[in-house]
Each structure stands twice: as structure tokens, then as C-alpha cells.
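All the exercises in this workshop are built on plain-text protein records. Sequence and backbone structure share a record, each on its own labelled line. The question running through the whole workshop is how a given chain folds. The record below serves as our worked example for the rest of this section.
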Amino acid sequence: MRPRVFYLPFALVAFMTASQPASADKVGEVGVDWLGNDIIVEAIHDPQVAGVTCHVTYFDRGVIDRLQKGNWFEDPSNSAISCQQTGPIVIGDIDLGRGGEEVFKQRQSLIWKSVVVKRIYDKANDTLIYLSHARQVQDGSAKMAVSTVPLHGRDVIWKGRE
């Protein structure tokens, strides 16, 4: 009989892959200056809402800029988001609470900072809200962007409802 500790790494890997937010596909990269700084454009497919694609942009600092400013391990937390219906909408088991749920997270520093996309369902207006914001361990940021996908009048399938 194997000790339980042997199974712990496998259980952790299984848990982490099962609870991962959506992954992003890099669809664009725009150079903004001669220092190597770029704006990255990524497409995010909501894992619980088929037929909705969000495009998120964020700043990626180049090596020269990192050398000049001295902060090697951090990118700005500014981001922009736009979400649209890109196919038939099929909604799975989503969190309908006011706090919504995290759909995507992209690290902007080694430890302290991330850009996060959360989905919130606005029941009164039958709309999905996608909020992109910075999450920091301390000194929370007011940098945010929002995009909505109205569901009213669209043929939407709810698989997560009873």
C-alpha cells in the first residue's frame, strides 16, 4: 500500500487544472515605441458561456524600458476589454451572484499584480457584464474596463438552470 503523500501531487495537479480560468489566445501585438513596449491583444473564450468572445488588451514592457525604469518584474495594470456574441450562446453553470466569477487572469508582475476578467450576470437587464480590472495584494487599483453582452431578444440556451 502506497502512502497518501504519494497521491498528493497528482491530486493537486488535477485540482489546479480543473479549476483554471479560461486561457487566452494571442491574436495581435502592436509595437508602440522604439523601447520594445507592445500592446498585446488576446481573445478569451468564456469556458461557461459558449458563443461569447472577449478581446483584452494590455501593455507589455520591453527590455530597454525595464532597464530604464528598474522594475524588471512588473507590467502596468492598464487593460481594455470588448466582448461580443460570436456564435450561438449556450450558458453553463455560472455564478449568478452579485460578485460574479473570474473568467480569466493574467499576471502583470512576478507575485503582486494581475489583470482579471470577471463575469457578472445582470438579471434585471438580462445582460452578461465582463469587467477587466487590476488585482493587487496591496494598494488596490481603480484601473478597470467593462463590456456587456445583452441577452434580451437573443436565442440563448441555459444549461446551468434547473
In short: Residues 4-158 form one domain. The helical segments are 4-18, 63-69.
